[in-house]
Amino acid sequence: MGRVLPSLNFPRPSGADASDAIRPAQLRGLSPDQVLVLVNGKRRHASAVVNVNGTQGRGSAPVDLNAIPLSAIDHIEVLRDGAAAQYGSDAIAGVINIILKKGAAGGDAEIGVGAYQKHDGKQVSLRGSTGFNLGGHALQQLYRAAE
User: Fold this and answer.
1) Which of the chain's ends, N or C, has fewer CB atoms near its CB within 10 Å?
2) Domain 8-100 maps to which CATH number in 3.40.50.300, 3.40.225.10, 2.170.130.10, 3.30.70.20?
3) Are 144 and 137 contacting, i.e. CB atoms less than 8 angstroms apart?
């Protein structure tokens, strides 16, 4: 990600109390709360944890990007130039718009296997996603009942 977007910093703090649980995204080296995070074009709420000690963006309450599953993301759009003019002072550093997967068609599966160089440990990861219709007739009845 750093090669595609060098102004993005996604630090991994350690030894900083509750700030370890949240990985803030920074653009242009500014504080994480100066980056506006959108999910499907809507503002994402900030976390309740305030960065403390020697972490990046000390004193800020960043958005927890780890709360969005990677398998649910279709693509990510980043707006840097003119973001503050369009979105206001929340977007001084820029805007990160996370677009989620949509629709009931298709799916994907992924298997990852790894081992340490000394062959003293292995790692296996499985991931999959699919979409399905919930039944058109049943949903139509629910919509009619709600009206």
Assistant:
1) C
2) 2.170.130.10
3) no
